[in-house]
């Protein structure tokens, strides 16, 4: 496989037909089935022969738990960066070994531009204390890149300096600047408990998830209701991404996510993890991700999220599987 040509082809996509995406998926599968030992061993345990995978529908998805127990790498390389999941004390972390940082950079920059346009000149404020306080966060890397690309001297990160953030927001409103505020959920809640501000109509307030034991868990409607009132905005945006992925999907409100052309979403049966639900099924199912940017790890990931897929390709995240729901996958992981 000509990797440069492959990467150029996915990041140049503005729109993609199902046939285009399936063709790229099969190219990625062919390469990874031959060069990713963990993925190859997983298929062997399932009794799947790569030569018989002649359509995208037959491509198997690797359970996301493998990123916690195995080196999920396609090819032999020393990674330029290793992204780590947050985890909690005593829990193993997911590791994503990124061969070339430019692949991730290209993915999130093209993804942001696809959904939101040029970020240059915007005021990008990142309220991400829990991520700043640890190493290996892919979200921090993305936020730093967006801050740099904004070329706004006031753009930057915040830990717990809510007073300073409030002052910067007030000045930005007075100057008529385009405001983009990225924040972990508990930090945004902490802020609006202390301050109330009416941001302009075109402001983007984006929660990146994560109470992480800092607050009680809330359903999306409750969380977004509090944030909309506190920031004076009509919608709260959200990002769907994870350590194991190099691409993101974004919601511009109501928890409905739209992916970039090189990111595909399918649902699997909640009772049979190897069975895909029909497209546009009204049933909820486990979320399977095809991230074509993951060419150096694994493009095909069975997440632990449960979701709903709409006819237009957008999707919702409804919850997560419990540990008992994924015990079959855990047994498989232990055999590698």
Give a verbal description of the structure.
The chain has 336 residues and is of the alpha/beta class. It folds into 2 domains: 3-78 and 262-335, Luciferase, Domain 3 (Luciferase, domain 3, Roll), CATH 2.30.38; 103-240, Rossmann fold, CATH 3.40.50. It has 11 helices and 14 strands. The protein has helices at 3-11, 18-35, 37-46, 66-69, 101-116, 129-132, 138-150, 162-175, 185-194, 220-231, 327-335, and strands at 62-63, 81-84, 95-98, 123-127, 156-158, 179-183, 204-207, 237-240, 249-251, 257-259, 263-268, 285-291, 300-309, 315-320. The strands form 3 sheets. It has a 7-stranded mixed sheet, with helices on both faces. Strands 1, 11, 12, 13 and 14 form a 5-stranded mixed sheet that branches. A hairpin with a 5-residue loop joins strand 9 (249-251) and strand 10 (257-259). It is globular.
- Described by the principal axes of the CA atoms, the overall outline is globular
Per CATH, the superfamily of the largest domain is: Luciferase, Domain 3
Q: Give me the CATH fold name of the largest domain.
A: Luciferase, domain 3
Overall mean confidence score, pLDDT? 91
What's the helical proportion of residues?
25-40%
Task: Describe the strand arrangement of the main beta sheet, using strand numbers.
Answer: 5-4-6-7-8-9-10
Radius of gyration: 20 Å
Report the sheet with the most strands, covering strand number, pairing sense and barrel closure. Answer: 7 strands, mixed
> In the CATH hierarchy, what is the class of the largest domain?
Mainly Beta
Q: In percent, how much strand structure appears in the residues?
A: 15-25%
Question: In terms of per-residue confidence, which ranges show pLDDT below 50 for 5 or more consecutive residues?
Answer: 324-332
- Would you identify the CATH architecture of the largest domain? Roll
Q: What is the H/E string?
A: HHHEHEEHEHHEHEHEHEEEEEEEH
| Count of DSSP-assigned helices | 11
- Which structural class do you get from the secondary structure elements? alpha/beta
Number of domains: 2
Determine the oligomeric state from the structure: single chain
N- and C-termini, Cα separation: 27 Å
List how many beta strands DSSP finds: 14
């Amino acid at each position: 496989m000509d990797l440069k040509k492959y990467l150029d082809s996915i990041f140049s996509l503005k729109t993609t037909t199902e046939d285009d995406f399936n063709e790229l998926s099969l190219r990625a599968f062919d390469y990874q089935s031959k060069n990713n030992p963990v993925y190859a061993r997983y298929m062997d345990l399932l009794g799947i022969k790569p030569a018989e995978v002649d359509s995208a529908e037959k491509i198997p998805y690797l359970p996301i738990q493998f990123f916690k127990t195995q080196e999920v790498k396609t090819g032999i390389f020393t990674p330029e960066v290793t992204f780590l999941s947050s985890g909690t004390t005593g829990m193993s972390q997911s590791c994503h070994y990124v061969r070339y940082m430019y692949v991730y950079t290209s993915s999130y920059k093209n993804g942001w531009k696809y959904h939101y346009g040029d970020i240059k000149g915007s005021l990008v404020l990142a309220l991400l204390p829990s991520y700043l306080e640890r190493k290996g966060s892919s979200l921090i890397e993305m936020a730093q890149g967006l801050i740099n690309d904004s070329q706004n001297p006031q753009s930057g990160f915040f830990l717990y300096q809510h007073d300073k953030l409030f002052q910067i927001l007030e000045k930005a409103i007075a100057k008529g600047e385009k405001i983009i505020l990225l924040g972990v959920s508990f930090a945004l809640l902490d802020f609006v408990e202390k301050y109330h501000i009416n941001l302009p109509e075109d402001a983007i307030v984006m929660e990146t998830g994560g109470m992480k034991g800092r607050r009680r868990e809330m359903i999306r409607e409750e969380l977004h209701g509090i944030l909309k009132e506190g920031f004076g905005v009509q919608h709260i945006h959200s990002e769907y991404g994870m350590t194991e992925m190099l691409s993101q999907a974004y919601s511009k409100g109501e928890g409905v996510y739209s992916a970039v052309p090189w990111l595909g979403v399918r649902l699997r049966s909640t009772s049979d993890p190897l069975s895909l639900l029909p497209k546009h099924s009204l049933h909820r199912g486990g979320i399977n991700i095809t991230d074509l940017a993951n060419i150096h790890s694994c493009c095909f990931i069975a997440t632990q999220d449960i979701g709903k897929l709409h006819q237009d390709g957008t999707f919702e995240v409804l919850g997560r599987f419990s540990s008992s729901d994924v015990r079959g996958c855990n047994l498989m992981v232990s055999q590698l």
